[in-house]
């Protein structure tokens, strides 16, 4: 045997370079996904505090949800407009094929915000937010119809469990013999249906976002039109659907707490949207979809600590079913795309 047999075989430089390149790509992929998940978590955290500020206004001032969105959208519009100009974006440069999806995104976005914030007037913060997550169960069917995606058999099982969770949350067949309890149940039922409306419009928004992914628009462009849509649509929704006059806002006497709250919600929408958008630039959407459901237990904790709302046993069961079914769908999607 020759002397070379006593030494391990040495890989050539191209093989070593290829292995190092693969290891570096794996490291960068993990790093960027982690950065995206952190950014999305920050977005959830920021957005939840904006909702708490909204709840504070509703409980302490005679101001409707439509009025809050109307005034806060001016701050959001101003912030994103300045940002878009700094980024050198032409707000009118939108491809013809994507204009209809942008219009639909604006219309459904304004309805989603109006309905979700209106449901806070009838439900606890955590219950309204949890019911809105039920919209994710409609997305596979909308994706099948509008995008041609296949509906997985496993999804149907998870969707059924999630639907049971919504029934536990809404409790539409609850029988109340006491007159006062019956009136309270009717108010909660109304709020639940409003929150379901927000869930449905939210599901359509996800479809339009996917349609707009190939539009080449800078992330500041859509929020500019979205904020402008809120300024136009919220007074219309408030006045014609719920007979609420936009001029009833109680800012007489220069109530700076109320004014600062409007400004705070507007900046909150601006900052949280930036976090959400940047997150999708780094992380896999299927991985992000798992993280977003962290918002559910956070809302229950905030509702308990800040507003003292203790969830009912049926609501806890319903929320658990919705959370688990959503996580199962998201994890199944993530696993299938990874393979």
Account of the 3D structure:
The chain is mainly α and 339 residues long. It has one domain. It is globular, with a radius of gyration of 24 Å. It has helices at 13-60, 65-86, 96-119, 125-132, 139-146, 153-170, 179-212, 221-241, 256-282, 285-291, 295-307, 313-338. The longest helix has 48 residues, at 13-60.
In short:
The chain is an all-alpha fold.
Instruction: Classify the beta-strand content into a percent band.
Output: under 5%
- Sheet/helix structural class: mainly alpha
Distance between the termini: 45 Å
Can you tell me the residue ranges where pLDDT is under 50 for at least 5 consecutive residues?
1-11, 245-253
Key traits:
mainly alpha; disordered N terminus; 339 residues; 12 helices
Outline the secondary-structure elements.
Blueprint: H1 13-60, H2 65-86, H3 96-119, H4 125-132, H5 139-146, H6 153-170, H7 179-212, H8 221-241, H9 256-282, H10 285-291, H11 295-307, H12 313-338
């Amino acid at each position: 045997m020759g002397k070379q047999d006593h030494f391990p075989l040495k890989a050539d430089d191209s093989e070593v370079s290829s292995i190092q390149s693969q290891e570096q790509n794996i490291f960068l992929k993990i790093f960027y996904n982690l950065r995206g998940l952190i950014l999305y978590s920050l977005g959830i955290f920021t957005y939840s505090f904006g909702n708490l500020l909204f709840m504070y206004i509703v409980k302490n001032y005679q101001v409707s949800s439509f009025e809050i969105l109307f005034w806060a959208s001016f701050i959001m519009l101003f912030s994103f407009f300045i940002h878009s100009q700094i980024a050198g974006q032409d707000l009118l440069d939108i491809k013809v094929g994507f204009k209809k999806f942008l219009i639909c995104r604006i219309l459904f976005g304004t309805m989603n915000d109006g309905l979700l914030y209106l449901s806070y007037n009838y439900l606890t913060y955590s219950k309204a937010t949890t019911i809105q997550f039920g919209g994710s169960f409609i997305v596979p069917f909308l994706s099948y119809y509008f995008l041609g995606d296949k509906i997985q058999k496993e999804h149907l099982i998870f969707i059924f469990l999630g639907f049971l969770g919504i029934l536990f949350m809404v409790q539409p067949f609850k029988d109340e013999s006491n007159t006062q309890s019956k009136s309270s149940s009717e108010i909660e039922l109304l709020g639940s249906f409003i929150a379901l409306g927000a869930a449905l419009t939210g599901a359509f928004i996800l479809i339009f976002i996917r349609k707009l992914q190939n539009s080449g628009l800078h992330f500041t462009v859509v929020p500019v039109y979205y904020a402008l849509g809120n300024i136009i649509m919220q007074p219309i929704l408030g006045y014609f659907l719920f007979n609420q006059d936009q001029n009833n806002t109680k800012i007489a006497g220069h109530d700076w707490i109320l004014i600062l709250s409007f400004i705070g919600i507007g900046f909150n929408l601006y900052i949280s949207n930036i976090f959400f958008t940047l997150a999708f630039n780094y992380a896999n959407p299927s991985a992000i979809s798992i993280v977003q459901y962290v918002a559910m237990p956070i809302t229950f904790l905030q509702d308990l600590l800040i507003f003292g709302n203790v969830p009912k046993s049926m609501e806890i069961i319903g929320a658990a079913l919705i959370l688990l079914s959503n996580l199962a769908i998201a994890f199944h999607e993530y696993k299938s795309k990874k393979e």
